Automatic annotation (TrEMBL):
It holds the Pfam family DDE_Tnp_ISAZ013. The lineage of its organism: Bacteria, Pseudomonadati, Pseudomonadota, Alphaproteobacteria, Acetobacterales. InterPro entries: Transposase_36. Residues 1-37 are annotated as: Disordered. Residues 11-37 have a biased composition (Basic and acidic residues). This is ISAzo13 family transposase. It comes from Belnapia mucosa.
Length: 229
């Protein structure tokens, strides 16, 4: 950050049911006019669930959230990072040569997920950035900055409001702000991300990945195969 290079914190927020379901919290409404919600939380056909994947820019205090409607896979996670870079990152950091990512040790961006590393290699090849990933050790995911800098603010902003549609979810996330200057950009990702994709040993060998000297199982750097001009 001191060198002007981008550093981001990433994670998937808790999946949310889409529909007129109860959303914890209190919201000001006219007396005697509570908003009706369903008693049961069965998934509604045609609406399903959403998986909000967040990218938090540590230096800019700005967030990006891709609201996915399909599976929360490593391909979806890297696509969210790609969209952040294309829409916000490369404009904010035009001279960037390196990207640092802090992430949890499990989930779609887990340290042992092969698809996560393969997709990051593709992203590095596309943008010409050297991508350094630092995974938080197991049991320390709440230390990830995105949890209390972005996700907590989103939960506070939509408290008490039923998430009745994809449009409402995107608007509520995009309207999230804090007194410290947080801004959030949100978009719906309607792409499909199939589960069960296998990454072969040959594909792993082809990755330009270097393990860090300090806990290389959690910290590593992926370099682009060909430096961009």
């Amino acid at each position: 950050m001191a060198a002007g290079q981008p550093a981001i914190s990433v994670d998937t927020k808790k999946k949310e049911l889409v529909g007129d379901f109860k959303n914890p919290g209190r919201e000001l409404r006219p007396k005697g006019q509570p908003e009706p919600v369903r008693v049961h939380d069965f998934e509604l056909p045609g609406l399903g669930k959403v998986a909000p994947y967040g990218v938090y820019d540590l230096a800019a205090n700005a967030g990006w959230v891709s609201v996915g409607v399909d599976a929360d896979t490593a391909a979806f996670a890297v696509e969210s990072i790609r969209r952040w870079w294309q829409q916000l990152g490369q404009v904010r950091y035009p001279k960037a040569k390196q990207l640092v990512i802090t992430a949890d040790c499990g989930g779609s961006n887990g340290a042992r997920v092969r698809l996560w590393k393969r997709e990051l290699q593709r992203f590095a090849d596309e943008c010409g950035l050297t991508v350094t990933v630092a995974h938080l050790p197991p049991g320390t995911s709440k230390w990830n900055r995105i949890e209390h800098r972005l996700f907590a603010a989103i939960s506070q902003n939509w408290r008490g409001k039923p998430l009745v549609s994809h449009q409402v979810i995107v608007q509520l996330i995009g309207a999230t702000t804090t007194q410290t200057g947080l801004t959030v950009r949100c978009e719906l990702d309607a792409n499909s991300y199939p589960k069960g994709i296998k990454v072969t040993d040959a594909e792993m060998v082809a990755l330009a990945i270097e393990r860090d000297a300090f806990h290389g199982e959690w910290n590593y750097t992926i370099s682009p195969h060909q430096q961009s001009p």
